[in-house]
Amino acid sequence: MIQTILWKPEGVVMIDQTRLPLEEIYVTCQSYQEVADAIRTMVIRGAPAIGVAAAMGVAIGVQQADAAGLDAQFEAICAELASTRPTAVNLFWGIDRMKRLYASLRHLSHREITERLVAEAILVCEEDIEINKAIGRHGAPLVPDNSTILTHCNAGALATAGYGTALGVVRAAVEAGKTIDVFSDETRPFLQGARLTVWELQHDGIPATLITDNMAGHFLHSGRIGCVIVGADRIAANGDVANKIGTYGVAVLAKENNVPFYVAAPVSTLDLTLPDGTHIPIEERASAEVTHIQGVRMAPEGTVVRNPAFDVTPNRYVTAIISERGVARAPFTESLRELAAKRGSL
Ligand code: MRU
Prior knowledge:
By secondary structure, this protein is of the alpha/beta class.
């Protein structure tokens, strides 16, 4: 199984997603600043994986902090990690989980606090894989047998601690004996679909076909696609979904062509404090990601660029949201509130 991130005695080990698929290289972050840099530069990316990295970043930061003045150092560690990327709410979820634990441990020694935080970060990582498998179990029955699934970006093992959300549903459907193949949008400008989704599906022997983003409408109209499944970076209380730029267009095209559009995401991606998607902060990334492909300039010097990394799909385009606690359908304000309140093993 592909494992994206791992806690090791020497540091936080991650597969470098900026180098895939040409090179499979693992980097070891030995400080919280290195973890923050890895998130910022997208060595690690994908909402759940960012949440795990943030929890591990907090743990490594506390491990290296001085025992004196720990509270102030803890705040600085959390603030640095929280400043890396604004859209995926899992980042803040991971940090908040560590903050709550830290607040309950302040009577302990620095060594004991460190041990507990490291154990918690490892637990966040292990739980993420279990959560994704549960998402897969809930989602697999929705996938028609002998069908093609269209996905956008990478919501796979590489975007999580392992197994994936959208691709977790694909994996679970395949494990249940269904014959599935995947069409992967290349996902300009960062090419998560071409570089990462195709790589990990090939790794698992799941048939994958790469298309450019502007081909999605053609294939949705052709009747070839059984359903669309994507991940999410943040889901507002009314079911509006922030995900990789281009998702909105795919969702509109899916509805136009009567193809179900599913969002697979853990409950940690819900942000019920936001009434709708207009409140979700959208990260704007460097213009070089648009003017260049893999370091090679495509646009003239001085080109004015916009590069929002995410867009928001209004809830009316979402057929269902698949979580580890079950499947939510419209009206999402009620169904998501119920999911969030549901107690279970996960
Ligand atoms: O900019 P990225 O690569 O971090 O964006 C990732 C996505 O948009 C994913 O679809 C989302 O995080 C869900 S991952 C399970």
